[in-house]
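Need a sequence for this fold. Nothing fancy.
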């Protein structure tokens, strides 16, 4: 298995290297193409990842981290049978500013999996893409391009639709906190459905397929940590335990409150 762990917390200005000949295909999150490729990709606040692993049991980990932890796994099979490498590219308006090969697979390399973890500063997430090159034994070659921002919790650009009611939920689900515009009542929104109690939220989560990924966007308090006298935030531990019982993954993140 090709496995690389690296931290990308600064920009390295490098020359523009070609990703190979062929067609570049943009992979939209939740699309049929994403399902066919079969990769697993998560973008999570570093501190949330540490807390989920129990690393704050001895030393408390408070507030959000300045970096995301990115985890990526793919198998060289089916559409990716000619997988030859994985590259991270950072692009700004004036062109490519950094390009880092994360994994390389050659005809002599018998490994059939790519398993990569790395850190990336949150302010770089909108500029970052992963490119899966598939050119080893193909005349046309080509690449699959994945935008990291589409997988970042709190990113409002993830699978947006002009008509949210018609949106078909993807393999992930997002819990957003809000307040009723007229009454100020605390509510939570999951898959564009408004719930007014923790029990109603758990009932909705219980109807999701097993193995679902749920991102809980809690509010940031004045000190930078999850704050606000909110009934859903107070029930975080209860929701995490409930999701575990339902064989679902609940990932916590903290964002500025919005209404």
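Here you go.
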């Amino acid at each position: 298995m090709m496995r690389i762990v690296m931290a990308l917390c600064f920009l390295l200005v490098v020359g523009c290297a070609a990703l190979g000949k062929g067609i570049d295909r943009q992979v939209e999150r939740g699309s049929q193409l994403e399902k066919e490729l079969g990769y697993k990709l998560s973008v999570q606040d570093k501190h949330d990842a540490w807390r989920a692993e129990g690393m704050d049991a001895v030393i408390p980990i408070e507030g959000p981290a300045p970096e995301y932890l990115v985890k990526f796994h793919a198998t060289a099979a089916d559409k990716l049978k000619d997988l030859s490498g994985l590259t991270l590219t950072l692009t700004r308006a004036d062109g490519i500013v950094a390009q880092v090969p994360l994994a390389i697979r050659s005809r002599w390399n018998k490994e059939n999996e790519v398993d990569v973890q790395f850190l990336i500063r949150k302010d770089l997430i909108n500029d970052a893409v992963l490119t899966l090159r598939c050119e080893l034994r193909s005349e046309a070659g080509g690449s699959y391009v994945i935008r990291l921002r589409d997988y970042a919790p709190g990113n409002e650009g993830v699978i947006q639709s002009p008509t949210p009611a018609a949106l078909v939920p993807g393999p992930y689900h997002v819990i957003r906190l809000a307040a009723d515009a007229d009454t100020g009542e605390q509510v939570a929104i999951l898959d564009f459905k408004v719930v007014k109690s923790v029990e109603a939220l758990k009932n909705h989560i219980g109807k999701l397929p097993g193995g679902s990924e749920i991102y809980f966007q809690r509010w940031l308090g004045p000190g930078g940590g999850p704050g606000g006298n909110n009934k859903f935030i107070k029930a975080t531990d209860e929701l995490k335990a409930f999701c575990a019982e339902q064989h679902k993954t609940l990932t916590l993140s903290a964002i500025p409150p919005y209404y």
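For context: The chain has two domains: 2-151, 164-255.
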